[in-house]
Amino acid sequence: MSSVIKDEKFNYLFHLLIEFDKYCCNHDIDVMLDRGTLLGAIRHRGFIPWDYDLDVSMTWANYQKLLDAWKHDPLPGREIVNWELYPDYPSFFLRYIDKTTTEIRRASAWDVAPAGMSLDVFILIPLPVDTEEAKLAQDSYIVYFELMDRIKLNKRTREKSVLKLMKSCLQEIEQKDNRLEVCERLKAQMLKGVSDPDYTHYFLTPIGIRKLCIYDRSDADEFTTIQFEGRFFKAPLDYYHVIRKEYGPGWRYFPAKADSYPYIENLNIPYSIYMHDYMQYFEKQQILSDYAALKDAELQDLLVHQEASSTIYMLELEVFLARFASFGKANAYNLENLPEELGTLFNEYISYQISAKPRYWNLWSGLDDSWLEMLLQKLLNKAEYLKASALLDLRVGASTKPLSQAVQTKQIRLNRVFDLATAEDCKDVALVIELLNEIDSLDPLISSSAVADAARLFLIAEEAEKTGDYAALKMKAEAALKRFPESPEIMFFLALANRRCGNEADAIVLVKQIRKTSNNGTLLLRIDDEWGDLL
């Protein structure tokens, strides 16, 4: 649908980002890279190749400063839009747009506000300190967004507290025809933390999510800079911490497939001209009113659909519980002497529990933690850390039952694996040493894993950079690769040692193998830094 090739759009959006960043700087407004753009900066040092937009964020206080600045000093040909500025616009977060271009997406399809090529500007709203008030503020935002956005229905699952609030709001609207009154009440609740001077956290205001991302106050109030497409922009001081919160421990890895791109764009035709050719014939307010009624009906259907779908998948998960029950108690077994039937059940259960549908509906079977502890250990033994994390996250997110001590221990060990990888990404030598020492004392299995070996090779490589002696790195990397012949991270250090020792041909063979087999974005960046001129 787009009349703009990807490189043209990326180049255009990049200059739009520079322009907006400069405007904010001139008006003492803090804006930082966030979400997909922050991920792109860390993992690609620029645009994610299969992405199609740019994301920045600012705190509520900076958002208010932006609104005030724009009243007095708007930029020609540009506009900021959200539903506070244009009540019929279907998003609370801002878009910074170029009105001299065309961009048609859900948010602009009914010509209710200026539109064009845009940046997404997400708002970080303070959370009340009180735990119950904080939870209600988050739930209120999710329901508020659904009721205000007439056009897009988020079909993803929600927590029970959100569903309960949504159901009561829809019932009240149906009985009293007071949609705006209900929405204003939700808005007041979601903004309750704004007046709390002691707030410690923010929540981010995107769309189409099940659960909001929570930031520590320091995540949004303290900054560093990060490179994006050769230029530096503000980012959270601990941006690795933020990106891990938003995308989970698998953020380094490229997805299996990219999403489609359905939008109509043109850099040469103003949106208003494109739209007015045919939008002038529509009764837009009537259409939007009809959409609101339709959206409410869809939300009612969704509540029923979610309940039915959850029930269906829970029945399937309960079959697994019955099969586990047939083996008695977990303490009667250990991983070294599992019956073949139980080993098969372990594999089937892990695959099903972390598959798309149970995760989509946020369903946990209720499997006893004594069995879960064995499942996690099985995954740790095989170094399947992302699977273990997915299983554990589902248990934590879908059940209010406290974790057993044994499972908490596995959680700590799993977190240390990801902490170690992050410390290496940051080139934090002291933290890598600290974490390796902790892992050595916690778990001999992880201590002898490919992740730990790669971290030790990192330390040797950092020392070799100072001394110029790469012989020890080569020897250690060769030994590690014999233990873990498929580890691209270990291959990298052997390739590095080979290059420094003058064996460029051997290094290139390894590097090409890594590029062919690895989807670890940060590792591939290292390769580009070291061998980009040859590859």
Describe the protein in words.
The chain is built from 22 helices and eleven strands. It has 535 residues and is of the alpha+beta class. The protein has three domains: 6-127 and 200-277, 2-Layer Sandwich (Beta Polymerase, domain 2), CATH 3.30.460; 304-403; 414-531, Serine Threonine Protein Phosphatase 5, Tetratricopeptide repeat (Alpha Horseshoe), CATH 1.25.40.10. Strands 1, 2, 3, 4, 6, 7 and 8 form a seven-stranded mixed sheet that branches. β9 (223-228) and β10 form a beta hairpin. α18 runs antiparallel to α19 (471-483). It is globular and about 75 Å long. The model has no long low-confidence stretch (mean pLDDT 90).
**CATH class placement of the largest domain:** Alpha Beta
Strand runs, count: 11
How many structural domains in the coordinates?
A: 3
Amino- and carboxy-terminal Cα gap: 34 Å
| Low-pLDDT residue spans | none
Helix percent band: 55-70%
Main traits of this protein?
535 residues, alpha+beta, Beta Polymerase, domain 2, Serine Threonine Protein Phosphatase 5, Tetratricopeptide repeat, 3 domains, seven-stranded mixed β-sheet, two-stranded antiparallel sheet, 22 helices, 11 strands, globular
Could you give a short description of this structure?
This protein has 535 residues and is an alpha+beta fold. The chain is 58% helix and 10% strand.
